[in-house]
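[Target chain]
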Amino acid sequence: MTNREEAEIQISELDLLSSMFPYEEEFTVTDQLAVAELKHFVENESAEMPSSKIQFILNVKLEDSNASTEKFTMVCALPFKYPSVLPEITVRYVIKKYC
C-alpha cells in the first residue's frame, strides 16, 4: 500500500468517525493542522509526507439495563503508515465507587 493510499484511508476513517459521533464532546481531532497536512498530501502529488500524526479523542457513554451510565475515553494516534501499522490507543475509564 502506498503512502497516499494509507493517507486516504486515514481521512476516510476520520470522516466516518465524525459522522458516527457528530458532537464535539463525543469526537475531537486534537490537531486540525495535522488533518490539513494529510489532506494536502493526498490532493497534491508533489506534497511531502505530513510532519504530524493524526490524533483524536473519542468519548463513549454506555448505558446498562439499570439506567446507569458509564463513560470511557479513548485517545488514538495514527502512525504515518496506518493502517499498515497499528495505532497507538489509550483507554481511560473512571471506576465509580458505590457505597
Summary: The chain has one domain: 3-93. Residues 3-20 form the longest helix (18 residues).
